[in-house]
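User: Good morning. I'm curious how NAP would be positioned relative to this chain. Could you predict the structure with it bound?
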Amino acid sequence: MQQYLIEFSYLVASILFIFGLKGMSHPESARRGMHLAELGMLMAIIGTLMHKEIVSYEWIIAGLLVGSTIGTIMGMWVPMTAMPQRTALSHAFGAFAASLVGISEYSRHYASLDHFHMGAIGLEVFLGSLTTTGSIVAFIKLQGLVRGTPITFKGQNIFNMLLIGAVVTSFIVLTFSPSLTWLFIIMVVLSFAFGVLLVLPIGSADMPVVMSLLNSYAGLASAATGFAISNNVLIIAGTLDGFSGLILSILMCKAMNRPMSNVLFGAFGSVAESTDAGTEGVMREISSEDAGVQLAYARQVVFVPGYGLATAQAQHAVRELANALEERGVTVKYAIHPVAGRMPGHMNVLLAEANVPYSQLYELEIINPELPSTDVAVVIGANDVVNPDARDNPNSPIAGMPILEVDHAKSVIVLKRGKGRGFSGLENPLFFKPNTNMLYGDAKESLMRLIESVRQA
Ligand code: NAP
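Assistant: Good morning! Here's the predicted structure, ligand included:
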């Protein structure tokens, strides 16, 4: 009976995970999807707690208290802008847990393991360990504790290849001879080392893809854990996590125009260092009064939010400006670039928080053809995602990255604090174009001033 109840709760959990993921594929159903997935996790936990013979409730309560305290503190204090590094840390925790379970399973059963279970444990420990250290390095880089540019050394490619070769060889030998404990220890140590060396040479610009890939590895490590300890919900949830992470990585590669192979084998490919693009012309400044008049008498205005909108927490202000414009009969749209901000869906989440209707959010392919007939494109703290060099300069490090072609709009107003560069560190020729005007200042303050000007126009 107990076994049936456990399997039933795992089945319900798996179904809820699948519906949760489906819900998360659209902004409108994302919140519901999140709640379904949370419910799924609760069912999985309840099922696991029913394993009376293997569960030690004292340890679980201790883990629950420590984990909940850390989680609550992180949830309350980590700002939205630091979400990528927070996610990296979460991956590290999850992967470390998978790795520890694998090490514990091996140490308890190494004398009696069959080939299949040894293979599953080996994979779990390999992926878990490399994801742990890889995610910690990603965290350190994203937090700015070390420089974000690629950290390389001479002969790194060959060294990394030898290292992964040694890990794979140990894994294969162990699968056939599980009792070689010394080899297991070597495999664990080399896997931890490989995680560090895998992420070190990857520049910050590629970090979102790497994080998504590490997420995928953590998921696959959990799936392997499921095989190792014969737990169905771990197999299903891990596989879902692994493959959704992989699909997301592929989509992000497309959006950033970075070949997956280049990111996967960071040290093997050539990750471009940021270089300056040649720019001509001058940056023209505009006053908020003049900008307000332009907006007030426009037919269509397209807002382009970017990372600066997130740092300034200007999502409510942009909504307020949109309201003021709509009251005057101006059509307002928002152009969303897939990698605007610092994580996938960053802008969607912020704008949803300010109750911007989803129907006003337009993806790149849809809005670009509309930009030439747009009177004013307002770029709010975005830079790389509107850099025309990606389209026009084949030598640019971001050449080929799809961009929002705001330079085709009749007029462009760029809201930023000063002459700071974007994530890629590149100069942006858009700011020097004759149809572009710069409105300097913190995005939120500039938007508040624009609201005033529009109301007075
Ligand atoms: P971006 O290229 O990083 O540019 C942000 C701009 O915002 C900067 O030029 C900065 O200029 C301005 N800014 C910063 N704080 C501001 C404030 N308080 N008020 C007004 N402006 C402010 O941003 P993006 O165009 O959104 O492009 C995203 C970049 O991040 C891409 O290169 C993408 O590949 C990368 N990335 C994306 C993800 C993802 O998954 N979405 C993850 C990691 C990295 P000033 O300093 O002059 O103000």
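Strands lie at 300-305, 331-336, 361-363, 376-380, 411-416, 436-440. The longest strand covers residues 300-305.
Let me know if you'd like a different ligand tried.
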